[in-house]
Amino acid sequence: MAAPCPRWATTERLVPVPPVDPRAPQRAALRRAVLSLVAGVVLLDAIAMSVFYLAGIAHGPERVRWLFVIAWSIATAIVVMVLLRNVRRVRFQNRRG
Predict the structure, then answer these.
(1) Sorting pLDDT into bands at 50, 70 and 90, what band is 20?
(2) How far apart are CA 82 and CA 56, in angstroms?
(3) Which of 19, 27, 51, 72 is the most exposed place for a label (fewest CB within 10 A)?
(4) Would the pLDDT of 78 be above 80?
(5) Do 79 and 41 contact (CB within 8 A), yes or no?
C-alpha cells in the first residue's frame, strides 16, 4: 500500500482563486486615457514655458506677456476638453441607457 502524499504535494487549492475581473480591460483603457490627459497637459505646459522663457516673452512688454498667458490658457482648456472627452468615452463605454 502506498503512503499518502504529504499535504504540500497535493494539487488541490487551499485558497480559492478570485475570479477574473470583467472590468479589467476597461480599467486599463481608463488608466491609459487619464495618463494621456495628464501627459498632454504636462507636455503643453513644458512647451509653453519653454517658448515663454526662450523667446524672451518673460522680459518683454506686459501686454505681450498677458496675450501669451491668455493664449496658453485657451490652449490648455482645448487640450483638456479634447482629452477629457476620451476619458469620458472610455468610462461610459459599456453603460446602457
Answers:
(1) confident
(2) 30
(3) 19
(4) yes
(5) yes
The pLDDT assigned to 22 comes to 76
Q: Which grid coordinates are listed for 83?
A: 482629452
Q: Which long-range contacts (CB under 8 A, 24 or more apart) does 73-80 make?
A: 75/44, 75/48, 76/41, 76/44, 76/45, 79/40, 79/41, 79/44, 80/37, 80/41
The amino acid occupying position 46 is A
Three cell numbers written together for 30: 481608463
pTM equals 0.72
Distance separating alpha carbons of residues 65 and 61, to the nearest angstrom: 7
The grid coordinates of residue 9 equal 504535494
Q: Nearest Cα to 80, choosing from 20, 34, 49, 17?
A: 34
